[in-house]
């Protein structure tokens, strides 16, 4: 799937783009902050109750009611489709709390694949593996031994291994998850909430929990699908692809070949592009003076911009002053503006010089030498635009090309100044 498909599978922005929804969210913010503080206090009690009571139907019912107060509403469809003989549940991954939601409906264990073990792992409801499997093959072997234990609760695995928004597509299922057992039960999960995105790639589980407490509610729709068994001759990847296609069809999304590594690479590339764009905008940031204020009238312009524009005008007399001023507002640098104007290919209309020409004609001296020099100054001078013939392949070639253009520019400016003021080439040297 192309980059546009990856963009549709993840919400990189938490806040909405709709102005009306953003306004409603702003009006709701004071209520949301108060609700978040209250739910943090209630959440501590929910954690203590879940730790104190043993795993049973009564505990799941009580905790589920208390989670509704926290804004986490759980709904399930087709609960009778759940097969008690199946030892492995396969679910799509949307939030950091999917395993907790499924655990409110039935007893199951989810192994910790990444992250530190210890109290945080236990408090979040993950199952710690004693040996600490270093590879997915070792992890699959450990889970196979777990499933062979009589009376052990079923396993809940997320073969996508990372979260999506659940609205566009599924990440490619990993094959190791389907090497644990030959029969799995797919679980379709759909998460909805108002105002904000359900999850973003850069958020931690604690940040997601605070946002969950902030919004009015988050609805988790859980649908139990019929079990699927491995057919004879199917490999682990074939079995994974079959379950992925079935689950994607039930969710109404696309089954993709995008992996967790592709998501990480896309996020890294997106961050690099955003940082590069921000640095570019910062380097070309215009001055605080509005562009409309910087008109062609020199009497109302910033004196510094006027002085810089005059310096550029002395070097490039054929470029209109308004064009020079506009470029200086963007670059704030004389050399950069000269380079930008030299690289342009359009021709500029000549500026009106009637007043200055008449004044200079009144002050013409009568001496022959002066007349010849002023005649040379009034003679048309061809416009020169030093430009590179080709783009250098290495930085050294590009630097030499820039130096040649500068030398040609300085030579043109020197000749223009000499002819304008009636100086001899020998006197100027």
Automatic annotation (TrEMBL):
Key words, A-Z: Endoplasmic reticulum, Lipid droplet, Membrane, Transmembrane, Transmembrane helix
GO biological process: ERAD pathway
Bilayer-crossing regions: 20-42
Region (Disordered): 344-381
Example GO molecular function: ubiquitin binding
One term under GO cellular component: lipid droplet
Family: Belongs to the AUP1 family.
UniProt KW Protein biosynthesis keyword: no
Compositionally biased tracts (Low complexity): 360-381
Pfam families in UniProt: CUE
Membrane topology summary: Peripheral membrane protein
Matches recorded under InterPro entries: AUP1_CUE (IPR048056), CUE (IPR003892)
Main location: endoplasmic reticulum
Protein name per its UniProtKB record: Lipid droplet-regulating VLDL assembly factor AUP1
Record-annotated CUE domain positions: 304-346
Subcellular location, record wording: Endoplasmic reticulum membrane; Lipid droplet
């Amino acid at each position: 799937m192309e980059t546009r498909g990856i963009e549709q599978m993840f919400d990189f922005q938490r806040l909405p783009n709709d102005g009306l929804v953003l306004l409603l969210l702003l009006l709701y913010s004071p209520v949301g902050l108060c609700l978040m503080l209250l739910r943090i206090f209630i959440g501590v009690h929910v954690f203590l109750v879940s730790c104190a009571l043993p795993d049973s139907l009564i505990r799941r019912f009580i905790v589920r009611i208390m989670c509704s107060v926290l804004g986490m509403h759980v709904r399930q469809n087709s609960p009778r489709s759940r097969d008690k003989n199946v030892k492995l549940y396969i679910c799509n991954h949307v939030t950091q709390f999917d395993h907790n939601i499924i655990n409110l409906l039935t007893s199951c264990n989810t192994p910790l694949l990444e992250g530190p073990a210890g109290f945080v792992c236990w408090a979040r409801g993950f199952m710690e593996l004693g040996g600490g499997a270093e590879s997915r093959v070792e992890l699959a072997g450990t889970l196979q031994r777990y499933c062979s234990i009589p009376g052990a609760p079923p396993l809940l695995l997320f073969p996508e291994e990372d979260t999506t928004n659940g609205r566009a597509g599924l990440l490619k299922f990993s094959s190791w998850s389907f090497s644990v057992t030959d029969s799995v039960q797919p679980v379709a999960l759909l998460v909805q909430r108002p105002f904000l995105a359900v999850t973003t790639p850069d958020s931690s589980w604690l940040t997601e929990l605070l946002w969950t407490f902030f919004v009015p509610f988050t609805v988790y729709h859980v649908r139990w699908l019929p079990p699927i068994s491995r057919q004879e001759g199917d490999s682990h990847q074939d079995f994974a692809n079959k379950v992925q296609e079935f689950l994607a069809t039930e969710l109404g999304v696309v089954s993709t070949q995008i992996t967790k590594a592709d998501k990480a690479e896309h996020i890294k590339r997106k961050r690099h592009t955003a940082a590069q764009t921000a640095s570019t905008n910062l380097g070309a940031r215009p001055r605080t003076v509005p562009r409309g204020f910087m008109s062609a009238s020199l009497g109302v312009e910033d004196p510094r911009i006027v002085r810089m524009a005059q310096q550029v005008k002395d070097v490039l007399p054929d470029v209109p002053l308004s064009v020079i001023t506009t470029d200086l507002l963007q670059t704030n640098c004389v050399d950069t503006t000269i380079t930008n104007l030299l690289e342009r290919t359009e021709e500029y209309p000549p500026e009106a010089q009637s007043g200055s020409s008449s004044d200079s004609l009144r002050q013409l001296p009568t001496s022959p030498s002066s007349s010849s020099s002023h005649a040379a100054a009034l003679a048309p001078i061809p416009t020169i635009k030093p430009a590179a013939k080709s783009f250098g392949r290495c930085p050294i070639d590009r630097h030499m090309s820039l130096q040649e253009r500068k030398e040609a520019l300085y030579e043109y400016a020197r000749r223009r100044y000499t002819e304008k003021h009636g100086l001899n080439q020998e006197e100027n040297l």
